[in-house]
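Model the whole thing, not chain by chain.
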Amino acid sequence: MENKELCLVCQDFSSGYHYGIPSCNGCKTFFRRTVMKKQKFVCQFDQNCPVDKSIRCACRFCRFEKCLKVGMDQSALQASRDPIGYTKRTKKPERRPMKEISSDESSNESPERQITPTRSFENTLNLLAVREKSANELRLSSYLPKRSLKQALCSKPLLNDPIFMNKHASRSPRHNYDNLRFITQDDYHYWHERDWFVLTEYAKTFNIFKNMSYHDKTELVRHAAIVIPVLNQVYNSPDHGLDTVVFPDGTYYDRTHEPTRPAGLNRKKYQVLDLVLKPFREMEVNFNEFSAFKAITFLNPDADVSLETKAAINEERVTITKHLYSYMVQKDGLEKAIYRFGRLILMGTTMSKMACESKEAVWIADFFENIGFTSFAKELIFGDN
Amino acid sequence: MENKELCLVCQDFSSGYHYGIPSCNGCKTFFRRTVMKKQKFVCQFDQNCPVDKSIRCACRFCRFEKCLKVGMDQSALQASRDPIGYTKRTKKPERRPMKEISSDESSNESPERQITPTRSFENTLNLLAVREKSANELRLSSYLPKRSLKQALCSKPLLNDPIFMNKHASRSPRHNYDNLRFITQDDYHYWHERDWFVLTEYAKTFNIFKNMSYHDKTELVRHAAIVIPVLNQVYNSPDHGLDTVVFPDGTYYDRTHEPTRPAGLNRKKYQVLDLVLKPFREMEVNFNEFSAFKAITFLNPDADVSLETKAAINEERVTITKHLYSYMVQKDGLEKAIYRFGRLILMGTTMSKMACESKEAVWIADFFENIGFTSFAKELIFGDN
DNA sequence: TCTATAGGGTCAAAGGTCTG
DNA sequence: ACAGACCTTTGACCCTATAG
């Protein structure tokens, strides 16, 4: 710090010898980067710009020339090394960068893209949350049309139709989660019908869904037919302990064995409680996270759809996953977010398993014999031939 | 200075014998430091990076591996010398009084002190990569014992037994991926047997597995019985295009319809090509990422294991997932890492679907009738009753 | 005692990382 | 995207213990 040498390039205090000559940190790094990236600069003037501490960044061409002139040695550069990871200790008060990134992204967004708009995670998650809210309103209403699967999938979308929603989607007085009583077969039946109806409307709100062939639409909805209702039922159930799922009309089930139901369905009950309800409660999944997770679960490329549709679905769900992660980091901080995110996304395998098992012939047959299916349900589960 | 020996690690001129072999100053110091600080490195590629004078710093994992391979002897490191007895500035004691004090201070510190803690993801991922490498060596060997599932799961683990591995796990000359020919039923059968054998040994290397009940062990392995072999087959297949999977003995399958096989198996072939091979190739999944993904796939709490085991498995796979994420961020940068990570982890749903479908009665029956199962395979797929 | 060898330590100068 | 402060790693060079 006393009689230090000066940088031969810019006359700043040198930080030692670099590439053969005394030089400062800035000129050292500038030289390395320039040689490594083989950058070529152009001088705006006469190739004799002054280079000193105050204006060393003004002309990169002349700065690099000066580096060479005072004897910096290119051959002193080495081959790339193994990356060494983070070098700075973690800082605590850093919620701002997320914010900045998100506002940057939204200001960069191009207005003409419409199919998969690149918005900030806030916009994406917000869109999903709004969709989820509407879907739940419809679920809590008493509206339940009788229609075929084809009618359901090809008719006008209802969820984003404010006139329809205003008129028919007000909450039924029966759906206030009070008057608890144990669930019966008829109640199961009623809520399956409602949840399947809402599922078809939910599906139609995805732009990506509108562009699919009819075959792909039915396959995707069919694949989601068990798990999406389960997610609705579990997430919206008020907390009566880890063993109880309550439906909006106050009917509930718990671990009580129901001997009149097939073994497969009793087993599924335990799966739902252990593998969905419990993790949701433990992780304190919030509404935005649930909305995104449900969309990721719905957009499952494992359904028997065309390869193009698989690819499109996958892109969409990866995008949502990215935004969900950004949101969680902003909300929980890095460490906690990685844990919660990993845990939540890995629940996808459980969802996948349930979706798959619901197709097992034995299970379906049980189900079919014990619940009087409507023709809609038969189409949904078995296909229309 | 001319007839000097060369460093066995990097071919630079050796500065004498160090730790048992002729080696250069750099490799000598690198080896000492790595052992002393117990550093664990992770290879960014496939653990076979070249190591020579010009690029010896490019991959620290492979450099250290090479050190060990050419015979550097860890036991030649001496116990920590008495730092106080070491008088370093006998010649020029006046040069840097400030420095001297500070370095004395630092030399009084315990050598175990973690000034730069090695990032934990390196240890975790490295462990998984080493495990994967051994498993693949066993897979490429010709060792294939006849034993029951119980014997397989309860016998002594082989993968981390260096004596066994040295003796029996050398690569079979038949398993060199050349001599391509279309696969037959017998070949399928052979590779299923091999992959199932390796799977049982792979499973036993997980500490978490050792602590499970026998029932949980079989369920977990059973749940992995289809997907883990698929991952092995796909990842290790040399690239002959997106339609071809090559086994180590040169047998291959592609999209050719095989009419002698049941429809379910032909369908599965397409699934493997479209949903596993293609994404792996597109994402350029590297060895570390594959090792971690395979472990996450194996540790699937959806298997029919006890609730305690489910919870333990889930914790473990969430931990691996976190470390995988950290690794990918370090390797790819934030933006790219989030995309690749999301895409890779979401492939878990596909794995789950395959695992589940493999249990479908119809599918299994097809499979069973067309491939002569050994009793081991029957146990694995159907259980032992 | 002397000398060659092979341990360990040092620090200038490489390269990598991250924030503004 | 670039600049440069700040971080880690490398290895030529040094000191020291020990065997012959």
